[in-house]
Amino acid sequence: MRWLSPDEERAWRAFLRVVVAVQRGTARDLGTVGLSEPDYEVLSTLSERPDHTSTLGEQADKMGWSRSRLSRHAMRMEARGLLRRAPDPADGRGCLLVLTEQGLDALDNAAPVHVESVRHHFVDRLTADDLAAIERIARRLEGP
């Protein structure tokens, strides 16, 4: 076992603090318009898809969630009128997630709040070099 050096430990803990702080801030800000971060991700992703539709499996993969977790979340979103679930003709066991007009309206209302929140809690606190470094680091950490 290779334990973390003091420098590595500080860097790891700093990374965790940053992730928590940014997510807490953006989640709080989205909450003012009645959405959670997962709600916003589902709605924004569906808005970018042809016919505002995605399979449950594709959406779960994008979010890094299990299908069952997303299915339960989608049920709650459907009950709020933000999306509807429909049978997937290509997969008898799967379903499609379809953005509703109410969901699109909620997204249109939330998008400016979300962008301002991301700016406030992240982008505007960093330099162009900082942002480039984060992007470079993220590329190194993506994948297996």
From TrEMBL:
Pfam families: MarR
A GO molecular-function descriptor: DNA-binding transcription factor activity
Protein name: DNA-binding MarR family transcriptional regulator
Keywords: DNA-binding
Origin species: Micromonospora sagamiensis
Matching PANTHER family: MARR FAMILY REGULATORY PROTEIN, TRANSCRIPTIONAL REGULATOR, MARR FAMILY
Gene Ontology biological process terms in this record: response to stress
Domain of life, per lineage: Bacteria
